[in-house]
Amino acid sequence: MRQSIAFVYTLRDVPADAEVVSHRLLARAGYIQKLAAGVYSYTPSMARVLQKVSNIVREEMNRQGAQECVMPIIQPKEIWEESGRWERYQKGGQLFTLVDHKGSEMCLVPTAEEAFTTMVKRAVTSYRQLPLNLYQLHTKFRDEIRPRFGLMRGREFIMKDAYSFDIDDEGMRAAYAKMRIAYQRIFERCGLKYTIVQADAGAIGGSATEEFMVNADTGEDTILVSEDGSYAANVEKAESLIPAGEAGGEAKPMHLEHTPGDKSVDQLSKRFNLAPSRMIKTILFRAVFAESEETVAVLMRGDLDVNEVKVANAVGAIAVDLADDARVRAATGAEPGFAGPVDMKAGVKVLADISCKPMTNFLCGANKSDYHLLDVNFGRDLPVPDYKELRRARAGDMCIDAKRGKLIETRGIEVGHIFQLGTKYSSAMGARFADEEGKERPFVMGCYGIGVSRVAAAAVEQNHDKDGIVWPAPIAPWQVHVVCVNSGDLLMKQAGDQCESALEGAGIEVLYDDRANVSPGVKFKDSDLIGLPIRVVAGRDVKDGIVEVRTRRTGEAAKVKIADVVAEVRKRLE
Ligand code: ATP
Ligand code: MG
């Protein structure tokens, strides 16, 4: 592809909203343009990258026996009501919905369990037609609350989504294992460093589930990994061991303490000379359910943190978020900062982390502005609460299997997610087949997603330097950037043309900077920014039949005869 005619451009300015490097570089190097918040146009170079990622995904899915489909992205409300997810997704605030001219409600698909289950339900009647694994590479829509980081969290994005249908759990587990292998091969082939982590099932539902995380400091996900590397979990899911707190001793009478302005554990610890582990924090949440909202109070030992995902799972909520001040006042009758579990207003659901169970004579908020209660005891001053595992595991905690060492915190970008769903969707949607005995049974399903456009962005997060992108060769839009230093110089132009045709003749993809009236400095800057793996420069040495071949990642360069360019490029691409 010749740059003089190609739609390839670079920008000097960084988009004002570009917070992460992949967004900055992809925009500046002319790969993406924003059309609306979280909605991007892909230029020809980006289309090539996405095609490369898609092809790797496709090959590995096919290798595991999955079959490609194309499903509608606009879907009727009915199938979403059958699965019970219409309300859930709408409440979650992520569903793009629309009404057609007849007044029927529809949505733009955020994920396609319903559509695939419907398709299989209508065509598969017998166990003889199973197992099946069906997938597509298609656009998804989610009205993300905070679209950001360019392609990383878009409102429209490309996903590979696959759905397996099996006779029983054993079949589902086998399908899951195959997808796990496919995913490992996909991310390795894309040239990415990644970690497989235990994950929370979230709104999709189901049991066993793992995420594939591209290791990157800018990742939105926090991962906890054991020292020996054998345990890795998303912090939303992670568990850990912590030392027992200091005991509180024999029960003493409860009393009210005036604590003007003291709202934090630190302030109270100083005032009473009491370890934070002798206090109970009461954190109020708004829990959102399909039909309602509730206030949930979580009791947590003072030195520990709450894991919101565990709270949502414990109460079966679609989502939970911190209560705003009005909700806190309504639940406690006090200013925020003084909430406590004694005489909490009716209608507030109280949960306590398991760490609170052995505590006696603890300090907590009094539900009265500027007051706390000291020497509070469960069972006497307040009912024994519902104890659950609600604590957020932290770096430095011991792994639940202590042999594996302490937990270390890293960050990652979720590029893939695999789920064992079981019969959640098939049961809800009446999707059944006849087994060997002729008995009707629901399909046992799995689902498997990869964020194709997010993979491209994650690759840039992991592969760049101060000058620009450094594409891993398998997903680079072109393998080689041939740069003619001065297109007005006949010899240089001839050498450039020659390199281009020799490389293309050898099946290597070439972007050829043959632009006239562009300075060599600008050409090299653009080339670094665009980030193709190998650069071939036709410059002054062409008079001796020599060009320079340079590897983008290392900057390592060699002068080679034009006749040897193909061999040299091949060697470097390996
Ligand atoms: P996240 O936790 O990042 O919001 P998710 O768990 O909701 O993602 P899944 O439902 O598991 O996402 O979707 C499968 C894959 O699709 C994800 O692993 C991710 O790679 C990709 N993906 C999800 N949401 C987005 C988005 N808004 N923009 C780009 N890719 C996305
Ligand atoms: Mg996910």
Quick structural summary:
The chain is α+β, with helices and mostly antiparallel strands and 574 residues long. The chain is built from 14 helices and 33 strands.
Describe this structure in words.
There is one protein chain. Helix 2 (44-63) packs across helix 6. This protein is an alpha+beta fold. The protein is built from 14 helices and 33 strands. The protein folds into three domains: 21-238 and 409-461, BirA Bifunctional Protein, domain 2; 255-388, YbaK/aminoacyl-tRNA synthetase-associated domain (YbaK protein); 478-573, Anticodon-binding domain (Rossmann fold, 3-Layer(aba) Sandwich), CATH 3.40.50.800. The mean pLDDT is 95. Magnesium ion is lined by residues 211, 414, 417.
Fold blueprint:
Layout: H1 21-28, E1 32-36, E2 39-42, H2 44-63, E3 67-68, E4 74-76, H3 77-83, H4 85-91, E5 96-99, E6 105-108, H5 113-123, E7 132-141, E8 156-166, H6 169-189, E9 194-198, E10 209-215, E11 221-226, E12 232-234, E13 240-241, E14 255-258, H7 265-272, E15 280-288, E16 293-301, H8 308-315, E17 319-322, H9 325-332, E18 348-353, E19 362-365, E20 371-376, E21 386-388, E22 398-399, E23 407-422, H10 424-428, E24 432-434, E25 440-442, E26 444-451, H11 452-462, E27 464-465, E28 468-469, E29 480-484, H12 490-505, E30 510-513, H13 520-530, E31 534-538, E32 546-551, E33 557-561, H14 565-573
Parallel strand pairs: 3-7, 16-18, 18-21, 29-30, 29-31
Antiparallel strand pairs: 1-2, 4-6, 5-6, 7-8, 8-26, 9-10, 10-23, 11-12, 11-23, 13-22, 14-20, 15-16, 15-17, 19-20, 23-26, 24-25, 27-28, 31-32, 32-33
Helix pairs in contact: 1-11, 2-6, 2-11
The structure holds adenosine-5'-triphosphate and magnesium ion.
